[in-house]
Amino acid sequence: MRTCFTAVLLALASTAFAQSPLHLIPMPRSVKPAATLPLPAGIRVDCQQPCDPEDAFAVADFKAAMSERQIPDTDSPSAPHIFVARFSTPLGRQTYQDSLPAGAAKVTAMPSDMSAEGYVILPDQDGLALTANTSAGIFYALQTVKQLVEGYGANAVLHTATVRDWPAMQYRGISDDLSRGPIDTLEFQKKLVRTLAAYKDNLYSPYFENTQQYASNPLPAPPGGSISAADAQQLVAYAAQYHVMVVPEQEAFGHLHHDLIYEQYQSLAETPHGAVLAPGQPGSLRMISQMFTELAKLYPSPFLHVGADETDDLGLGQTKAAVDARGLGSVYLDFMQQIDTTLHPLHRRLLFWGDIAQDSPDLLKAMPSSFKQDTIAIAWDYDPSTNGFAKYLRPYTDSGFETWVSPGINNWSRVYPNYNLGLANIQQFTRDGQQMGATGQLNTIWYDDGEALASNNWYGILFGCAAAWQQGESSIPQFEQSYAQVFHGDATGKLNQAQMELMAAHTLLKAEAQVGDGSDGLFWVDPWSKDGQDFAVKLRPYVSALRLHAETAMTLIAQARAAYPGPITATVYSPTNELPSNPTTLRETDAIDALELAARRLDLIGLKFQLSDEIAEGYARAQNDARAPDKKTRLMVSRELEDINSVDGRIQDIKDSYSLLRDLYSQSWLRTNRPYALRPVLEHYDYTIGIWLARMDKVKSAQRQWSNTRTLPSAAEAGVPLPAN
User: Fold this and answer.
1) What's the alpha-carbon Rg for the chain, to the nearest Å?
2) Considering Cα of 26, then 30, then 34, then 39, what sign does the dihedral take?
3) In the chain, which end has fewer C-beta atoms inside a 10 angstrom radius, N or C?
């Protein structure tokens, strides 16, 4: 049984957290730190009997997380304990009552805003007691307790605290792009679900253009790069254990190019082989009905997402006459009503992106009430805004629609996500959505050029979880100071600093050099090309600072790893056979590897421009030296050429750097994705490496010419650019 909070623990509370503040994501609404309890013998976890099966799963999930940290589940009475009791039990109600201020009136029901997913955690004489009204609340309470456990093995501690917590938004989730190249493995989708749940998101939305397999329309789904019915059913069942609903998004209007490229669908395309399904074609609604009827059987959530964003071709082809006569908004919304009517027998609410209809506020107000009740408009925008985001929401709120907000982590087409933009966008849009009554947040991941790596997305995903759960404007600095401690178990803070270094690199590239913000395009551009030479003019003042940011991040990552060598067996310490006093390990090491890879790629952006300048300047000096009358000066020609092209030559440095990153990139991709769509990226690496191999051959020819004739080809003949000055 839980006992009262003792005077000893109260005395400890005044000092326990002065030195070590709590690092929690999301930060609870109310948290009052108390004592810190060591866990040398492990931790006890008990669920009041009879324990609900869903609560038993949450307890087992907690125990598994502790086991991964080498913190055993124990029956020892001396070990700190976690006691779980539903609010419906006397002990649960007492736990809730004791969390209230002294003298508070007795309660018989949990407040309505806490009832569905809220929870209470209370320090006990020998651990923590927690209560909630539902299994979801119990699960989320235990996720918080996971974060209150700090350290590894016998050196772990439990931070106790009084916590009262509940979400600001009812629906909290992520839209996962499965149509622009990378396709998650089923195991990684499960990891996404577990991680979302651990940080209190309750919705996972896989985004499909042509990558869900349909028996009714089998052609578009690529072999090896699509989600089967069996995969979907397995994921849904898995996610339900973690209180996560899987809500599929199947584009049903625009973004259907990979479907409409097939000849059998040409009559349905607004423009030949375009991306927009033509309203007015009977087959369009039939195709939509077929796909969503199958989806409804696979994904039994209350929602289906029909997309309907960026219908840019609408009015350019088959519906041109209708759009010219009635207007784009009218044709668009008429078709949306037809989709709603067609899918109404499925008894699901339809989510749709709000970017098109928001420009027709009068038409929205005139929409029938049945359509407004059946649908939820998701407003989206992916940049920070000093003017707020009301303009994306007000057309719908003024018209009686329920709304969600959809920010983005800013990972698309970038070497590493630009979290300067991503975090600010998530913070501001979610804040404004809460103020305007939005009931959900759907954070977004996009893979526009097919290259972004999933393991680089966690920073933005976790901040999205925090912003949706927390009330009002979530603190970016608070998150930045807690991320690595919570996600990686890094008490040094060095991984937090590494993240900040990459954010500083983005700022330098975008705000200072004004060449974008670490885009894949900048990584791939040939510095000897016309575009590359144009970029070089802007980059030269900043390449050293860019590289120092990237290399500082790499150093910090190495230092964090060195501080956590991981569990080591006694045989490693022969002949003494003594175990280290504090065997510890970092968590989520795939993400740390991907962070380092991003830093290396940013470093190469700077390096290749530096080396290209050195090559151009070196070849110009070699040409000048070749014309010198004295033999001593002419002897420098071979040295200059060797600096360009030899074992330690500048060309080899660029070739070797791309080659190393190719292998690291492939390893990171395959940890999360199916092999499908990897080859085009690796071909880009191989193509780029081939360019520099060819340049090695050209300069080698110039070296032979010098050796044989004591003459050099012109820079143009050698394929070398002229110096900048």
Assistant:
1) 29
2) negative
3) C
- Number of CB atoms found within 10 A of residue 704's CB: 10
CA dihedral 632, 634, 638, 640 (to 10 degrees): 90
pLDDT in tens, 144-159: 999 999 999 999 999 9
Closest by alpha carbon to 550, among 599, 482, 485? 599
Q: Alpha-carbon dihedral of residues 407, 413, 414, 416, nearest 10 degrees?
A: 60
Q: Would you say domain 7-165 falls under CATH 3.40.50.300? A: no
- Enter the tokens of residue 644: 């360009």
What are the beta bridge partners of residue 404?
378, 440
Q: Residue for token digits 């970016």?
A: 476
Count how many Cα atoms sit within 13 Å of the Cα of residue 190 in the half-sphere of its side chain. 11
DSSP state of 512: I
Q: Are 419 and 552 in contact (CB under 8 A)?
A: no
**Over 60: is that where the pLDDT of 80 sits?**
yes
Question: CA 355 to CA 403: how far, in whole Å?
Answer: 12
Written out in words, the top-level CATH class of the domain with range 171-474 is alpha beta
> What is the H or E stretch that residue 39 is in?
none
**Mean pLDDT calculated for residue range 287-314:** 98
CB contact set of 29 (below 8 Å; sequence gap of 6+): 164, 165, 166, 470, 471
Helix (H, G, I), strand (E, B) or coil at 145: helix
Structure tokens at 370: 């049945």
Report which of 372, 239, 212, 223 is spatially closest to residue 296, judged by C-alpha positions: 212
Are residues 247 and 299 in contact, defined by beta-carbon separation less than 8 angstroms?
yes
pLDDT of 581: 45
DSSP states along 197-235: HHTT--EEEEEESS-B--SSS-SSSPTTSSB-HHHHHHH
C-alpha dist (Å) from residue 170 to 200, 357, 690: 11, 24, 52
**Mean per-residue pLDDT of the chain:** 93
Residue ranges of domains in the chain? 7-165, 171-474, 499-718
The alpha carbon of 372 is separated from its chain's Cα centroid by a whole number of angstroms, namely 31
Burial class (CB in 10 A: 0-12, 13-18, 19+), 697: exposed
Cis peptide leading into 302, omega within 30 of 0?
no
The Cα diameter of the chain in Å comes to 101
Is-contact 408 418, C-beta < 8 A? no
* 193-220: b (≥16 Cβ within 10 Å) or e: bbbbbbbbbbbbbbbbbbbbbbeebeeb
Tell me how crowded residue 92 is: count the other CB atoms within 10 A of its CB: 23
Give the whole-angstrom CA distance, residue 373 versus residue 344: 11
Over pLDDT 70: what percentage of the chain?
Answer: 95
499-718 sits in which CATH class? Answer: mainly alpha
Report whether pLDDT(410) > 90: yes
pLDDT digits (tens, 9 = 90+) for 485-510: 999 999 999 999 999 999 999 999 99
CA-CA distance, 87 to 184, in Å (whole number)?
Answer: 39
Give every CB contact of residue 11 below 8 A, 6+ residues apart in sequence: none
Question: b/e per residue, 594-603, with b = 16+ CB within 10 A?
Answer: bbbbbbbbbb
Structure tokens at 568: 């080591």
- pLDDT interval class at 295 (50, 70, 90): very high
Collapsing DSSP to helix, strand or coil, 118 comes out as coil
Residue 668 pLDDT > 60: yes
CB 501 within 8 A of CB 551: no
Measured CA to CA, the distance from residue 24 to residue 482 in angstroms comes to 7
